[in-house]
Amino acid sequence: MTKNERDRQQDLWGRAYTAEMDFFGGEPSEAAERASTRFQEEGCSLLLELGAGQGRDTLYFARMGFRVHALDYSESALLGIIDKGVKTDMGEMITPVFHDLRKPLPFGDASMDGCFSHMLYCMAFSRAEIEFLNREVRRVLKPGGLNIYTVRHKGDSHYGKGTHLGEDLYEMNGFVVHYFDRDMVESLAEGFDLLDVEHFEEGSLPRKLFQVTLRKKT
Hints:
Number of strands: 10
Oligomer: single chain
Strand order of the largest sheet: 3-2-1-4-5-10-9
């Protein structure tokens, strides 16, 4: 994955978010609803959300009483989160952060109770970049903290379709997806306890995904 390709992906998502204020809809994802229950059960209060997009899950977490640091690399998406936070009186619960996730996370060690990301890990990242990001998530989580992420897997009907960009990266209609298998999930569990891997579907295709729950080892 070249720098030019990454920059093109950033521009593509930025234009998509600018064109439609609720690109993925206004309701929270089912993945976020399941994750919220898990975070509540674990007594989490401060969450890190990676690839927050336009904030449909961010606002939901805030309404459920979590303080959320919402990271994205689209300025238009983050402006949308700020606007929605103000309009719903949830702004004080949300800290939007513009950040390139290929760089170290801008938080101290063991500073977060939990981390959530919906289809962020399966975006236009190489395997090495995903491994780096996952180590950063482990670094900023408190001992016992949860990392809950979702990814499209190789059982998805789009796997192997479109333009192959190396590894398990495929481009279709301009968007790049890195598809996972169980071996990839297990390799990312280093330094964590792998609590569960749930299979679920989303959307009209439907997209086929894993929801992975990891607990940082104490």
